[in-house]
Design brief:
23 helices; 600 residues; mainly alpha; binds zinc ion; Neurolysin, domain 3; binds L-captopril; 62% helix
């Protein structure tokens, strides 16, 4: 009898405490639902303001920037409000009684608050203005060669194809001019970004952005340095090879370090143009198509995997092609994807042009973001968690489709190369390394270190350019054509330094992830060699990707990896993928002098 009473008591107590839990859970739920609703409305207005600002830049137009500023201020006021900060913090203290999904949302509320806290409202206001001004200066800039306006597409094509070294230098210089006018703005933003997050206890803006991964700055820097260490031997071979073949091509002496204007990309972040694979005339084939074809074929690829067709509004509202040369406005010339209303108003901003073959993979990259948006826009994912597993995830899948889209079986399927041509596998791999391996010292090294120094170490403005080139030399073995003094700000010629601050390691991480995912898909789903896959039409691949993408940020990214791949983040699949190239390059480089250190 006694035991029964005792048992009853326990049951009763459990019921009482559960109902207390669920009272609290209900209260938090009401709060979060309201938060999500307002977040969505204000976020949509902000996105619309930004969209207008980035797609139509007219000198002297103050209305568009005022609208964008007001919309951003309203969003900032809400997300950074004392009330939201206090409530989220209060509820988080009781997290043992809340659901995992609620805890995630409350943490997100605090994270969002930290970039616009009401406690630093003057700083936040200044920051919003400074951000908008920087965007206008960056994308309103008129690039000129010999006093003639040129588009960034023209600059890019010229750096890929021009053999006259004097002309190359002029083009490269023209591409860096934009940095000069951005330097003051960057210094201002350095201060304002740091100050705004410091109000909520973060050390600096870099630390804040890194914390989104659940990592400390030291941990993130370790991840990045390890990546560089892993690929360094291969990078060193590629660097040595490039010094010799480019010197020959331009009729110059072999330099110790690579002059920046010798390389086929404004920042030296992608060298794939240096190798032509016999049998694949991709650029030529693309030129026969149209810009519309590129984007449509991209959609077609995703649809073949089982994803839906893009909503009609995507085609109506996106800004996919360059502004006409005689337009009285300019537009943001860098590619991006926008989740405007956190539902199905999804758009992409690009300047697709068939003459610049980069748009093929860039367009697939952006569609990767778009399909990610669509995947997690489902009732199980609250608006504030409609994000990637982590930011690197968001960057990874579109790039992975870009890699897959250039492998032989796929190119055949698309009619971009004739069937059954025998391609030289090593040359194909070589070209891929010039894209994916070359990118790592740039992203995990130069960009990440520069922004770490900028925000965490408060790099003084009169050392921006000096430090930029120190890092370029250290990580990429690239030097400026001549001493570039502090009147320049070459770092600021890179979009992300201005308007996607302290996040570039996302791309390094995304490359590591993409090889992990690609390797898994090739071996476990397609049963194909990772070097020669054909994803086209495979619904199982689509289902796998959709399962990874659709939870958005409602799950922990490390668990998401374990669940989907059965492994942790690792550069090994990337290193293994390129391993066959090492012996080949060592032979090619026999007798040549290496100028990068042997071990990183
Ligand atoms: O910025 C981008 C995307 C933006 S969604 C086009 N990427 C990095 C860059 O261009 O520097 C893609 C890879 C690297
Ligand atoms: Zn992207």
């Amino acid at each position: 009898m006694k035991t029964i009473n005792y048992l009853l008591l326990i049951i009763l107590l459990t019921i009482i405490s559960c109902s207390k839990n669920s009272d609290l859970q209900n209260e938090v739920q009401v709060y979060l639902e309201d938060y999500n609703k307002q977040y969505r409305q204000l976020g949509y207005e902000w996105n619309k303001g930004e969209w207008a600002l980035n797609t139509k830049i007219v000198e002297g137009d103050t209305i568009t920037s005022k609208n964008a500023q007001d919309a951003q201020a309203n969003y900032a006021q809400f997300t950074g409000s004392r009330e939201n900060i206090e409530k989220a913090a209060k509820y988080l203290k009781l997290k043992n009684e809340l659901t995992d999904l609620q805890i995630r949302q409350l943490k997100r509320v605090l994270y969002l608050a930290a970039s616009n806290p009401e406690t630093a409202s003057e700083i936040v206001k200044e920051k919003i203005e400074a951000d908008i001004k920087q965007t206008q200066l960056l994308y309103g800039f008129d690039f000129k060669i010999d006093n003639k306006s040129v588009s960034t597409n023209e600059i890019d094509v010229s750096l890929k194809t021009e053999n006259n070294i004097k002309k190359r230098l002029k083009t490269w210089e023209a591409s860096k001019e934009v940095g000069i006018g951005l330097k003051d703005g960057l210094a201002n933003l350095q201060r304002l970004r740091n100050k705004s997050v410091q109000a909520l206890g973060y050390d600096d803006y870099f630390t804040y952005q890194v914390s989104d991964y659940g990592m400390t700055v030291d941990e993130m820097r370790d991840v990045c340095q390890n990546m560089i260490r892993d690929i360094w031997p291969l990078y060193r071979e590629l660097h040595t090879w490039a010094r010799y073949i480019l010197a020959e091509k331009y009729g110059e002496d072999v330099p110790e370090m690579l002059p920046a204007h010798w390389l086929p990309n404004r920042w030296g972040q992608d060298w794939k143009e240096l190798v032509e694979v016999e049998g694949i005339n991709f650029s030529e084939e693309l030129e026969k198509k149209s810009a519309e074809w590129i984007v449509k074929k991209g959609e077609d690829f995703y649809v073949s995997l089982g994803f839906e067709n893009l909503p009609q509004t995507f085609w109506e509202k996106s800004s996919l092609y360059p502004a006409p040369p005689d337009a009285d406005y300019k537009k943001n010339n860098h590619a991006s994807a926008w989740h405007m209303d956190f539902e199905r108003d999804i758009r992409s901003l690009m300047s697709v042009d068939v003459k610049n073959s980069d748009w093929w993979s860039t367009s697939l990259h952006e569609l990767g973001h778009i399909y990610y948006f669509l995947s997690y826009s489902n009732p199980d994912v609250p608006y504030i968690l409609r994000e990637g597993g982590n930011r690197g995830f968001h960057e990874a899948f579109g790039s992975m489709i870009g890699l897959a889209s250039l492998q032989q079986p796929f190119l055949e399927e698309m009619g971009l190369i004739p069937k059954n041509v025998k391609l030289d596998d090593i040359q194909v791999l070589f070209k891929e390394a010039l894209e994916y391996i070359i990118f790592i010292p740039w992203s995990a090294g130069v960009m990440t270190d520069f922004e770490y120094e900028l925000y965490t170490l408060n790099l003084p403005k009169d050392q921006y350019n000096l430090e930029w080139w120190n890092l370029k030399r250290k990580y990429q073995g690239i030097v400026p054509p001549y001493d570039r003094g502090e009147q320049y700000c070459d770092a600021a010629s890179k979009t992300h330094i201005n308007n996607d601050a302290a996040q570039y390691y996302d791309y390094a991480i995304s490359y590591v992830l993409l090889f992990q995912f690609h390797n898994y898909i090739a071996k476990q789903i397609l049963q194909q060699d990772p070097h020669a896959t054909n994803y086209y039409g495979n619904k199982e691949v689509g289902k796998f990707l959709s399962d990874v993408m659709s939870p958005g940020a409602t799950v922990d990214w490390r668990e998401l990896m374990k669940k989907s791949l059965g492994s942790e983040m690792s550069a090994k699949p990337m290193v293994d993928y390129f391993a066959p190239l090492m012996d080949y390059l060592k032979k090619v480089n026999e007798g040549r002098t290496y100028t990068l250190r042997e071990n990183f």
